Amino acid sequence: MKPSTSRFAAAASLAISSTALAQSSIIIDVADPVLMPGQSTTVTLWAAFPAREYAMAQVALDLLTSVDIESWSHLELLPPMNRPGSTPGSLTSFGIDGIVAGQINSPVTGALQDNPIAFWRARYTAPTDVGSSFDVHLSTLTSQFDVYIESRRPDTRSYLSTLTEGQATIHIIPAPAGAVVLGFGVLVAGRRRR
How far apart are CA 1 and CA 10, in angstroms? Predict the structure, then answer.
């Protein structure tokens, strides 16, 4: 009897999670990686750190994008990685620069120990005037990746030297020809009724 496809998917997901937890890495999660003109998707950045460490402390990076920087909006840091001094970054010609996210390891409550931990989110909207398919390549360039070593203590350790940078792709495809023809037909029908 053959194992089901969902079992393979679950095993693959578990393998990816285990790999991510064994090392330090940035994960770029694209909710909908295939878009038609005008459609949007949410892009979330996650930080994974070695399981032996206590919690994520601070990450600083740039999100590089190959095209369409004007298509990004709603840049935000996700709690608790939005401590004072953090910033969701700013749009530049190369991507989103200066993303700084971090959480406080409080002497009373400690820090959130999620691993991986989501720390940043934004919306990407495909241009409306797409004539042919193209890809938006995303990658990270990290300058700081620090983790807390113990609960309720400020001591940190850097894992920048062993960090695996994030990579992802958003595929933009033009609207199917049938949808364009149908849209044109509705427009013509609407004009005839007037």
Answer: 18
